[in-house]
Amino acid sequence: MREFQLIDRLAARLAARRADTQLTIGDDAAVVAPAPGQVLAITTDTLISGRHFPDDTPAFDIGWKAIAVNLSDLAAMGAAPAWLTVALSTPVLDGPWCDDFVDGALAAIGDAAVDIVGGDTTRGPLSITVTAIGMLPAGAALTRAGAVPGDVVAVTGTLGDAAKGLGLWPARADTGGDPDTAFLLRRLARPQWRNGAAVRALAHAGIDVSDGFGADLGHVLAASGVGARIELAALPASEALRRRAATDEERRDLQWRGGDDYELCLTLPAASVDAARARLDCGLTVVGVIESEPGLRVVDAHGRRCPPFESDAAGWDHFGGRGAV
Ligand SMILES: Nc1ncnc2c1ncn2[C@@H]1O[C@H](COP(=O)(O)OP(=O)(O)OP(=O)(O)O)[C@@H](O)[C@H]1O
Ligand SMILES: Cc1ncc(C[n+]2csc(CCOP(=O)(O)O)c2C)c(N)n1
Ligand SMILES: [Mg+2]
Fold first, then answer.
1. How many domains is the chain partitioned into structurally?
2. What are the PurM-like N-terminal domain coordinates in residue numbering (predicted)?
């Protein structure tokens, strides 16, 4: 297949759904019309084969993940997603692979009113860069800087599943029939972006958990100039992770520093938690409280401090720790 055959094929599959998409794939740039009074939230994330997903990941899952991680960043800002561009670098133009990739991308969008309005296609090592644009009312963005003492810290869904899935990936041929393993692998391959826009007005601060819960919460604390007390035993874990983690220590470590979860970490008044939970379809678990004293205080079920979890070197860093190799 040639480059322009691919683009024609994409254009045929990606008809605009939104009335405010004025010009989509096919020209030098897309043209979109944000609603009056709304501001745009813009984010971009690259996925590199072998670094963000195993080299032998199916095309559908790569398409899914490339979209989901970007929609997760918009969710963390409380923005309603609207437009995406998808830049694909690939060593070969393989029609069925591209069809599966687009199937996965569209599945990650689901029934959200989001248009893929453009992109780029080049030959090179497999990597995908998505830019996502969302809308929200002026002045209403859910930033990392809004946490205030007395807020509770809450997290959607469960933590640690994707990191466990990554550990299980190499032996999946032997264990793929096991439902817990299948669940954990799926959590890695197809992260679910959360409906951050629905809870924007209830929360004070938000971030999505990509690098690890401890590290990403640390970004909120630093930006807000506050600290937090977190109860390790309160971190939400799936039944699959509870069963598949060899020890409680392994489970806690994966939950705290695993990354790739794409859950939302929110700070909000305790009185708003039930309302926020009712607007989400994924659970929302209170794991701690924001305090005025800077720093992270992590306690176990007996109220004892857990210093290893308080280190700020816990998360994924492409140029340090686990990410440096
Ligand atoms: N090369 C770059 N040029 C300009 N800004 C950058 C660059 N890399 C990161 N940033 C900005 O730095 C901030 C933090 O980026 P970071 O990638 O850590 O956040 P994130 O996108 O939420 O995390 P993740 O990539 O794990 O999803 C963002 O505002 C991002 O736009
Ligand atoms: C093959 C393979 N090796 C390692 C990982 C783990 N991983 C890679 S990037 C990242 C943080 C988010 O990335 P970014 O900060 O670039 O958004 C994490 C947790 C993976 N998913 N696949
Ligand atoms: Mg983020």
1. 2
2. 26-135
Decide: 151 in ligand 2 pocket, CB within 6 A: no
- Reported as a pLDDT band with limits 50, 70 and 90, residue 312 is low
Residue 61 C-alpha to ligand 1 middle, in angstroms? Answer: 23
Residues 118 and 208 in one domain: no
Domain assignment present for residue 202? The answer is: yes
| Cα-to-centroid distance, 71 and ligand 1 (Å) | 14
Half-sphere exposure of 227 (CA within 13 A, CB side): 11
Rounded Cα gap, residues 136 and 80, in angstroms: 6
* Pocket flag, ligand 2, residue 189 (CB < 6 Å): no
Tell me the C-alpha distance between 101 and 167, whole Å: 24
Q: Say whether pTM exceeds 0.95.
A: yes
Same domain as 187, residue 96? no
Pair (51, 114) in one structural domain: yes
Do the beta carbons of residue 130 and residue 84 sit within 8 Å?
A: yes
Segments forming the whole domain that contains residue 219: 152-324
ipTM for the predicted complex comes to 0.94
Cβ 214 vs Cβ 257: under 8 Å? yes
